[in-house]
Amino acid sequence: MGKKKGKAREESTHDLQLSSSDIKSGNVYTSPPFKFIVEGTAFYIHAALVSQHSRPLDRMINGDMSETQKGYAVLEEDDQGTFGRFAEWVNKGYYTSGEVIDRSLDESASEKSIEMNGECEKRMESPAEALQPDEVVVVEDEAPRAVFGWNVQEPSDFGVVTSSRTLKTKRKMKSASLLEEVSLTPRMQLKESFIQRKTVIRQENSSVPPPLPNQSPQQDYTDVFLSHAQLYVFAEKYDIKKLKTLALENLHAGLAIYTLYEQRTWDIVALLRYVYANTSETVDDVEDLRTLLTLYMGYEMDTLMQDDDFRDLMVTDGGPLLADFMRMVMKRI
């Protein structure tokens, strides 16, 4: 009996190992569906589609594991959104990221509540005791900001002081010749290095949706960035190399056009918190999720350091985040 079962399993596995011609002709969709249960929701995906991308998941489908005998697998450590994106990618070659949340409605409701509370307080206070609103001062040229005792001083984007006449002349010059004549500051060098990062899958697959730039501080991109990071971690866990690369490239594409408003630093803090809690330290200078975010911190550290949550995170993280951040500080001084 044992031999017969083993032979049957062997034949079943052989049936699922489809050739590239089978996949192109659509025969991959004739394989039986396998059920994955994630957070109580059942996902049915053609077994051959899963097997060709992930060895760990293939062992659940065709191996000696209990999931093979039961005909389904319960993924207790994964979430619906991430697995749904994996299922979408398996079928389409791309996935849909998390949604941008418009916080303007929340702020309007909050401002209305503050206004009503303020009116009540004014009625209770005497004119002499009423608080005066703080004076808002706009400073055009900020003093260098201190980062852990290091002063990050940059007179301008290109590290030079110019007169208005010189600026007018330089505006007429081509960007290429400008870069040849004027050296970039350390911050701009880091930013240029980040933006110019090469992509592979996004260039080859034109169906991958382009990222959308944010237009105001009221747009919350936390779910957008986390969806890419979570899929990266999922792909690393189940050894899905192409999906891991795509998730990294999608996150990079989104961050490259993202305007980091001081009111929206939480989007990045939440991303850093998740990444440093769910990924291992970079080994042998291999480019990974932490490497990407370290470079991003390098040119956005001025804004990030104004956030209390970011500073607290570097302390509570236990060292790796702070170490990566300090490496970027050394590149900026």
Please characterize this protein's 3D structure.
By secondary structure, this protein is mainly α. It is built from 17 helices and 7 strands. It has a 3-stranded mixed sheet with strand order 2-1-3. Strands 4-7 form a two-stranded antiparallel ribbon. Strand 1 and strand 2 form a beta hairpin. Helix 6 crosses helix 12 (222-237), helix 10 (186-195) crosses helix 15 and helix 15 packs across helix 17 (320-332). The longest helix has 21 residues, at 104-124. The model is unreliable at 1-25 and 123-170 (pLDDT under 50).
Provide mean pLDDT, rounded.
78
Low-confidence stretches: 1-25, 123-170
The profile of the biggest β sheet is:
3 strands, mixed
Instruction: Give the terminus-to-terminus CA distance.
Output: 72 Å
Strand content bin: 5-15%
Helix-and-strand structural type: mainly alpha
Biggest sheet strand line-up: 2-1-3
Total beta strands: 7
